[in-house]
Amino acid sequence: MKDKIMSLKEAIELYVEDGDLIGIGGLSFWRKATAATREIIRQKKKNLGVVSFVGGICADMLIGAGCLDRIRTSFIGMELFGLAPNHRRAVGAGQIKVFEETEATIALGLKAIYLKLPFLPLRGLLETDILKVRDDIKEFNCPLTGDKLVACPPIQVDVAIIHVPYADEKGNGNIQGPVWLDDDLAKTAKKTIVTCEKIVETEDIIHFQGKGQIPMQKVDAVVKVPFGAHPTSCFPFYTYDADHMMKYIQYCQTADGFKEYEKEYIAVASHEEYLEKIGGIKEILKIMT
Amino acid sequence: MVDYTTDELLTILMARQVTNKDVMIVGVATPIVWSAFTLAKVTHAPDAIFHYLMGNTFVWEARQVSLLWLELGAASRCHRLHNTGECTLELLPHDILTTIEFFRPAQIDQFGNTNNTVIGDWHKPKVRLPGAAGIPDFSGLYSAGQHLYVPRHDKRTFVPAEKLFFRSGVGFVDGTRPLTDYGLIGRGPKFVITNLAYLDFDPKEHRMRIKTVHPGVTVEEVQENTGFELLKAPDLKETKPPTETEVRILREKVDPLGIRKLEVLTGKERAELLEEIIRKEYSRVDRMPPRL
Questions:
Q1: Chain B residues within 8 A of A284 when measuring between CB atoms
Q2: Percent helix, strand and coil across chain A, each rounded to 5?
Q3: Between A and B, how many residue pairs show a Cβ–Cβ distance under 8 A?
Q4: B75 close contact with A: CB closer than 8 A
Q5: What is the pLDDT of residues A68-118, one digit of tens each?
Q6: Which domain holds residue B52?
Q7: Is B166 on the interface with A (CB under 8 A)?
Q8: What integer pLDDT is reported at residue B56 of this predicted model?
Q9: DSSP code, position A163
Q10: Mutate to test the interface with A, among B32, B68, B84, B272 (most CBs of A within 10 A)
Q11: Closest residue in A to B168 (Cα–Cα)
């Protein structure tokens, strides 16, 4: 059996290339692959794109660090804590290209990959300005009924990066709570990296609620990174770290401020050092469910 | 008369729109909507079902509104875990499943078209907003009409059609033709609940009109805070104010931490409340929000 268990450094070196479109799982503050994102920044990957159903701190950090040149999300923000600061600044300055997505354009874009179709039809977006800023989404008339519909193109992800509570050595990933688009991202991407809180035996995955939503045949790397979603949540273990989110937003008021944040929390020697920096055991106990 | 605050008025008016057979779609970071649905569930709509976008889940039971521990209620007490693809398909506005969802526009025009995408030119925006999520997909499809709310009724939000920076949600387009001409199968926007008034749309002209003004607010005041001319409903009257029971249940049971207020407050007051909520929630020994 191919050994899929490896370090974060190895996984990102092996499977993330400059220019890739990365699919990041989770949703804004919830179960985001933040440890993997920090490693991408440390390895100074360039000209990446991010596709996320709802983007948050991962895409924002990658923008701040200059790793991204394009973004595809239906929504990106810091929930009730405010706008995604680096994203707002970079888009305002025209530094990154925005693919204006919606929930359905992403959901259908991934489904079109399974079906090997050039588009999937949607009865939505009509009369919205999305059609003015996306020349690859087009209105057409249904060949059967003549109804006005919209054609949504496929979205081919190069590498999906998904953080899950449990994974086994074969690459089965189990998500206990919300799945969002993570299974579609993993199943349609050319490569998939799974980071997890715990490595368990396949026998355990069989008995977990939801079983292995991320299937082994689609997974290239399994990396154990406890608290690898901090400062976002990982159900059922911990919720998001509101204090750190506010600290992040505070740092990111300027581009230089993000550089300070990067120096302090991203350019660290190890994940253990990161967990010490964010406040160690006290902060960990604060967010545990 | 019962004392109430703006956030309580909005929440209670929105709760009254829920019917007993609704699937209530709780979006991300909209505690007024969540409070309204929870209030409806524990008062007049006990059979309504929560659908949390946060969890892609359906949940029967009601729990106290929470800022930090909501995933516990949304994910560990659900009856179904979705993936988003299924969820988007199943929850498209449906004629059989009666979904209710409230959108909060950053801008809205007289025809109910909305913008949640950018302030300024899309190509070089003054402020890039988070994005419109599913609004462009769903806004033209609601057979029961679109529900909108605006916590701060002002001319920055209520703008004439030519000043709408980006149309991310479709209303009655330019008001001149039936929606079916554009290929839209929904009924268009149904109402906008604001801190000043309840606005609906004239059935012939498809333009926004004042249906009721909230107690203590004048028709002139509503007009002065709107960037286009509002029509007036022939039966224009005063909004039925919150009852003592509605206010009490909301304050004491549904959202005692006042999380809903984060959608209304600004500046220092908001920052202080946010800090207070975070400290209270992290200091709880039992993380699960109380069942109502």
A1: none
A2: 35, 25, 40
A3: 174
A4: yes
A5: 999 999 999 999 999 999 999 999 999 999 999 999 999 999 999 999 999
A6: 6-282
A7: yes
A8: 76
A9: E
A10: B84
A11: A128
Q: How confident is the model at residue A246 (pLDDT cuts 50, 70, 90)?
A: very high
Residue B94's pLDDT band (cuts 50, 70, 90): low
CB contacts under 8 A, B 6-25 vs A, are none
B55 touches chain A (CB under 8 A): yes
Does residue B89 sit in helix, strand or coil? helix
Query: What does the pLDDT look like over B231-286, one tens digit per residue?
Result: 999 999 999 999 999 999 999 999 999 999 999 999 999 999 999 999 999 999 99
| Residue B289 domain flag | no
Query: Of the candidates B31, B129, B136, which has its C-beta nearest A125's C-beta?
Result: B136
Of B117, B125, B183, the CB nearest to A92: B125
Determine whether the interchain pair B136/A102 forms a contact, defined as Cβ–Cβ distance below 8 Å. yes
Model confidence band, residue A177 (pLDDT cutoffs 50, 70, 90): confident
In this prediction the ipTM stands at 0.95
- pLDDT greater than 90 at residue B17: yes
Select the residue from B50, B71, B170 to test the A interface by mutation, using most A Cβ atoms within 10 A. Answer: B71
Task: Decide: A20 and A157 in contact? Cβ < 8 Å.
Answer: no
Query: A237: which chain B residues are within 8 Å (Cβ-Cβ)?
Result: none
Number of alpha carbons in the 13 Å side-chain half-sphere of residue B164 = 26
Contact B127 A88 (CB under 8 A): yes
Does residue B25 sit within a domain?
A: yes
Q: Which H or E run includes B236?
A: strand B231-238
CA A151 to chain centre: 25
Q: Is residue B200 part of a domain?
A: yes
From CA A88, how far away is CA B91, in angstroms rounded?
30
Query: Would you say how long chain B is, in residues?
Result: 292
**B85 phi and psi angles, rounded to 5 deg:** -60, -50
Best mutation target among A73, A179, A289 (most B Cβ atoms within 10 Å) is A179
The 3 state secondary structure assigned to A77-114 is CCHHHCCCHHHHHHHHCCCCEEEECCHHHHHHHHHHHH
B68 touches chain A (CB under 8 A): yes
Residue B219 lies inside a defined structural domain of this protein: yes
Candidates A127, A150, A214: best to mutate against B (most CBs of B within 10 A) is A127
Q: Kindly tell me the burial class for residue B119, based on how many C-beta atoms sit within 10 Å of its own C-beta (0-12, 13-18, 19 or more).
A: middle
CATH code for the domain defined by A8-100+156-287 = 3.40.1080.10
pLDDT at B92: 59
Query: So where are chain A's domains?
Result: 8-100+156-287, 118-153
In Å, how far is B233's CA from the nearest CA of chain A?
27
- Per the prediction, chain A carries an average pLDDT of 97
Query: How many domains in chain B?
Result: 1
